[in-house]
Structure formats: C-alpha cells, structure tokens
Amino acid sequence: MSNLNRDDLGQPKTATFGGVTRARISSQSLKRAARRLFTKYGLNTTEVGIRTKRIVDEVVPILGRAGKDEEQARTVAMAALRQLGFGVNKDSGLTQYLLFVSHASIDFLARYCDDNWESLKRLAAAKTTSAQNKIKADRAAVEAGRRILDAGRAADVALFGRMIADNADFNVNAASQVAHAISTHAVTTEFDYFTAVDDLKPNDTPGAEMIGSVDFNAACYYRYANVDIGQLSVNLSGDDDLVARTVRAWLYAFINAVPGGKQNSTAALTMPDTLLGVVRSRGAWNLANAFLKPVVAEDLMSESTDRMLWHFGRLKDFYGGESGEIRSAVAASVSGDIATNGVVSTADSVDTFVRGLLAAAEV
User: Fold this and answer.
1) Which regions of 86-217 does DSSP assign to beta strands (E)?
2) What whole-number percentage of the chain has pLDDT above 70?
3) Could you tell me the pTM of the whole model?
C-alpha cells in the first residue's frame, strides 16, 4: 500500500485507462526521485543541476567573500538577473519561476556581477513599473546569459531539458522522455482511519487527541522512460565520458527511483520485479497498451510480466521493419520467471542487465 504521489486533495493520483481507474505516479515525481540518485550512481555533484528560485541567495555570499558589501551584492545580483531578462521579486529576491541551472551557473553569475558592478548598481537604482521587476534583455545580455546558463556539464538538465518562457535562447531540448506510471490493473482508493493519543494524558481522561484518515492504494505499476543518446551527446557538448556516465546513472536511477510521498507511514520501498531494456537505432515503444485490458489475476506481477513481453513480441512481429532497428532487448526479473519465447534475452541481475544495455548502446 502507498500514496507516493498525491493530488490536491491528498489522495493518490489516478488515471482512467481501458475504462477503469488506475493508480498513477506523475512523470515529474519519478524524474525528481531519479535526479536525487544520480550522484549515487557515478555523477559528481558539479555534474548535476539545481532547480531553484533562490539563485540570488547563492550569489550574495560569493560576492561577499570577494570583498563586496552583501547588502549591495543582493541588489546587484537581482539587477543582473533583470538585465538577463528574468523577473525577480524586489522584496524576496526570488526569481519569477524556477530556474534549472548547473552549479557552475552560480559562479558565472557572481563573476558577471563582479565584472559589471558599477553598471548593475545604476540599474538597481533605476525605477521600474514591472510587477516582476523585469526588463527586456539586449543582445549583449543574451550572450552573457548563454554563458551563465550553459548546461553543457549538467547531466540532468541535458536529460530532462529546460524551457525558459522569456527567452528561448536558453532552452534545452530534453534527451529523455518519462511517462506517467500507471497500474496494470484497476484500483480503488482506500482510507486508513487513525487516532493519536497524548502520552501525558491522565488515565481517567477518555478520547484521542487527534483523529484523521490517510488515503492509499495498492498497485503494480508499469513504468516507462527512454533516452536519446544522440541528443544527450549534443546537450553535453559531445563529452563521451560524461555521456556514458550519465546514461549509466540514468539507468540505475530509474530502476531504483521511488518517490517519497507518505513513506514514513507506508514504507513503500518495494523494488521493481521485472525490467525490460531495449536498445534501438531509432524510435521507441511505450508498452502501456499491454495493459489496456486491466490485469485480473491472483499473481498480478507474473501476469503483468507475461502481458508486457507478449505485447513487445507482437509489436516486433507486426512492425517487422521497425523491429529491425532493435539492437538488443534484455529482460531481468527478481522472481526469475520470464517466459521469453525467444523475444528477448535475459539477465540474472541488475548489474548484468545494465552492462548488457550499455554494451549494445556502445557507450
């Protein structure tokens, strides 16, 4: 049972698929859980990005250590962001929206502030009527912004992309696509009624001090994600070593990623039972339609595995020429019960599974 990803009412997210209600985990939730694991699987802290509205708070101490007055440094850093075309709240110093940047971006922005200190002080002193304290970036500011916001060393920005509505020059095309996970079967939201007792309450005083309920469901999820290694290489400036380590970290992270919602009350830390990895020259297949008809079986895991592999085999047979683009298809299962029928090869562990895919992808 779990409530890994809640909606605005606190209930587990759901979707209607095949005419029935399915449990759902949003792609954003899965991506965040995976991002938090990247440094565990071979990437350095400096090689992953930061998503924040608080970049000013990070720049000010750097300027302070460089001998600048920190109160002035704050207004200068805010003016620098305005000059680059970003809205900044003049009271809080928060940017108008979350910026997805590399760790190096903070140092680059601090250097930009230092190099342009006097002109930025004058800009900070100028009055503006903009609600977000924003100005249109000129050509010089756009060029400076490109250097500051360069994500060529930020693996997760390269994987998941970046869209900046105010300036498309700073956008990054995502190399990875992540689907919402859905249950392979129908679910019903259930409720855990709970009470909490005051430990210091006198014995002769009846009743609980807290009463409530927590929503949850129990589901076997189908999760799907892909990565375009060619696009990833473009985003990471052709650094083959970083590309290889990013793909490896991506694989391990998505296998092990579990969102954190309600974990302290449900401990929903079950690992995936079956993995299917496919390396292709081009194209991609999401196998969710294997579960268009909801699984109804005592052993949901085994039946879901069989459905997925059968559907993959049917796609290979039906699309013939397209299936010729498949270099490798590997399955691995904790239970070891995989009826491959010659459709895929098998691996006996996660490490063997990952090594086989990386070798087939030649990274």
Assistant:
1) 99-102, 176-178, 181-183, 190-196, 210-216
2) 97
3) 0.90
